[in-house]
């Protein structure tokens, strides 16, 4: 399936996009991970500049199952590689044929709202993968949930209830969950659960600033 072990307990895809597993293709489609990130946002493409070392170490430990409970909160200002590490963890899980669900938090809430409308249009007993129940069940029960940019969404009763229900279910059932955020100003119950796992601040120079400086130095 084009995978290799890059270190003990950590697998990655090789530089081929040819999949010979129907199950893998389904898992990738359901994961919601952008396909191009399979080659760009990996542990082997991560540049551990000053301030990111602990984040990389935590990502590796998380993949190996060494963080208990399996909850990882990566936080820091924009451009500090939070999404890169979170997505790399997602692809590492998929390389072992484990189900993954990745959402920018705003997109998840939009999908759930749309799911309500889809659900209301269904006949009794009819199933649709974009219905509210289908989306909720998948993000609650998949092998790995990645919530990107928690805290930037507008807090409403709907937002608080949905996110709390999802995180609480995964916390109670010991299901691996990765959250990224710009700050620790998060809903209290969610932060209270996440900090039982591991909380890592990523800091240092922004990747955008690094790229700009390198262009100027050429």
Helix-strand category: alpha/beta
For this structure, what is the CATH homologous superfamily? P-loop containing nucleotide triphosphate hydrolases
Strand content: 15-25%
Poorly predicted runs = none
- Report the biggest beta sheet as strand number plus sense, adding barrel if it closes: 5 strands, parallel
What is the H/E string?
A: EEHHHEHEHHEHEHEH
CATH overall fold name: Rossmann fold
Q: Over all CA atoms, what is the radius of gyration? A: 18 Å
Q: State the separation between the terminal residues, measured CA to CA.
A: 39 Å
Number of helices: 9
Total number of beta strands: 7
Number of domains: 1
Proper CATH architecture: 3-Layer(aba) Sandwich
Estimate percent helicity: 40-55%
Quote the average pLDDT: 89
CATH class: Alpha Beta
Instruction: Please tell me what the overall shape is.
Output: globular
Q: Please give the order of strands in the largest beta sheet.
A: 4-5-6-3-7
Structure description:
The chain has nine helices and seven strands; from the N terminus they run E-E-H-H-H-E-H-E-H-H-E-H-E-H-E-H. It has one domain (3-217): Rossmann fold (3-Layer(aba) Sandwich). The chain has a five-stranded parallel β-sheet, sandwiched between helices. Strands 1-2 form a two-stranded antiparallel sheet. A hairpin with a 2-residue loop joins strand 1 (3-7) and strand 2. The protein has 218 residues and is α/β, with parallel strands linked by helices. The termini are far apart. Helix 3 runs parallel beside helix 4, helix 6 packs across helix 7 and helix 7 (157-172) packs parallel to helix 8 (188-194).
